[in-house]
Design brief:
Blueprint: E1 4-8, H1 13-24, E2 28-33, H2 40-50, E3 55-58, H3 64-73, E4 76-81, H4 88-93, H5 95-115, E5 120-126, H6 150-169, E6 173-179, E7 181-183, H7 202-210, E8 217-220, E9 232-233, E10 235-237, H8 238-253, E11 261-266, E12 272-273, H9 274-285, E13 291-294, H10 309-315, H11 323-342
Helix pairs in contact: 1-2, 1-8, 3-5, 5-6, 9-11
The structure holds uridine-diphosphate-N-acetylglucosamine.
């Protein structure tokens, strides 16, 4: 059976870590990425870690004819679909870009999977589909609330497109992994989160002031109904998260799925506040950050963290890397890229 796995968005943050874990598990990742929000240096990092050249196509998944060329050249055991736009704030200002890109690329992929008899797909979903849940932690059965951004709406719609296609055509199996907040970097510090321009997510905004690239970290609000007033999230290590994809591929390829479409929460099961995260980062890396409290950010959810019992018991996956190690890996990665930029 083919061991080739198509990884769309494989040069991105989670995609790159997943390629490494796929390779280590004996699969051959084949990357499709348009490099619109990733750097060729990440591909070099993957190749260094794996000591192997990785097959890469610079293709936009919206370009179905170029994407079809990739399907013609390979025989895939599964597709892992990461390629998507992901900035919540930007999606509010550019909704058409988000709907066109995120829905269009999944639809193109599913058409091609049917045509070329590729049966299995892992989809990058997000805890954003829950919105602000009434009961915490959230389980996979927690009702989805109305999306608070076009980005969130695309994740909900993509899950629906997948569910409907799987049920109508009877030729696919799919697993949607609902990620909580991915952070961290590979222990080699050869790959990690590499945002272009001003980052949106918290961790680069923590490490960049620490590296002297940005003057100050702003904490958005300390008047939430949480123990220290800042928001609570479930920060999941990116290598642990990458391993969940390998387990999802194994599960489908080995015929262990319980249903043709399954959903798993991928988090630690532990909520950590923004302030707690910053203090832990300072403590484990022995440094002091410049940070201040500012007004709440529009659209932020107060608190969300995962009930992971279903992914632990059914997928057999569990987060293992302690937060302290994850936060050390992020700092090591930031120092590496800062050094590379200054060279
Ligand atoms: C959101 C989505 C997540 C999605 C991600 C994509 C939710 C619950 N989560 O993550 O599913 O994949 O966007 O980008 O909808 N913060 C600061 N200062 C900063 C930056 C962030 O205090 O400069 C705080 C935020 O208020 C938040 C936490 O840090 O409480 C994490 O923020 P961020 O990394 O942007 O992720 P989410 O908004 O949780």
């Amino acid at each position: 059976m083919s061991k080739q796995i198509l990884v769309t968005g494989g040069c991105g943050y989670i995609g790159s870590h997943t390629c490494v874990e796929l390779f280590e598990a004996g699969y051959e990742p084949i990357i499709v990425d348009d490099l619109s929000n990733s750097e060729p240096t990440i591909l070099e990092g993957i190749e260094k870690i794996c000591s192997k050249k990785i097959t890469f196509y610079q293709v936009d998944c919206l370009d179905s004819s170029k994407l079809e060329d990739v399907f013609k050249k390979h025989s895939f055991a599964a597709v892992i679909h990461f390629a998507a736009l992901k900035a919540v704030g930007e999606s509010v200002h550019k909704p058409l870009d988000y709907y066109q890109n995120n829905l269009g690329s999944l639809i193109n992929l599913l058409y091609l999977m049917r045509k070329y008899s590729v049966e299995n797909i892992v989809f990058s979903s997000s805890c954003t589909v829950y919105g602000q849940a009434d009961v915490l932690p959230v389980t996979e059965q927690t009702p989805r609330k109305a999306a608070t951004s076009p980005y969130g709406a695309t994740k909900q719609m993509c899950e629906d497109i997948l569910r409907d296609s799987i049920s109508a055509y009877g030729c696919f199996k799919g697993i949607a992994l609902r990620y909580f907040n991915p952070i961290g970097a590979h222990p080699s510090a050869l790959i990690g989160e590499l945002p272009r321009g001003i980052p949106n997510n918290l961790l680069p905004l923590v490490t960049q002031p620490a590296a002297g690239i940005r003057p100050m970290l702003n904490v958005f609000g300390n008047d939430y109904n949480t123990p220290d007033g800042s928001c609570i999230r479930d920060y999941i290590d990116v290598v642990d998260l990458a391993k969940a994809h390998v387990m999802a591929v194994d599960r489908m390829c080995q015929g262990r799925s319980k249903a043709n479409f399954e959903i798993f929460n991928i988090g630690t099961g532990r909520g950590v506040s923004t302030i707690e995260l910053i203090k832990t980062f300072e403590e484990v890396n022995h440094l002091k950050l410049n940070w201040q409290i500012v007004a709440r950010r529009d659209g932020d959810i107060e608190a969300v963290w995962a009930d992971t019992s279903y992914s632990n018991n059914e997928l057999g996956w569990k987060a293992t890397r302690p937060l302290s190690e994850t936060l050390k890996s992020v700092w090591k990665w930031q120092q590496n890229i800062t050094f590379a930029l200054r060279k």
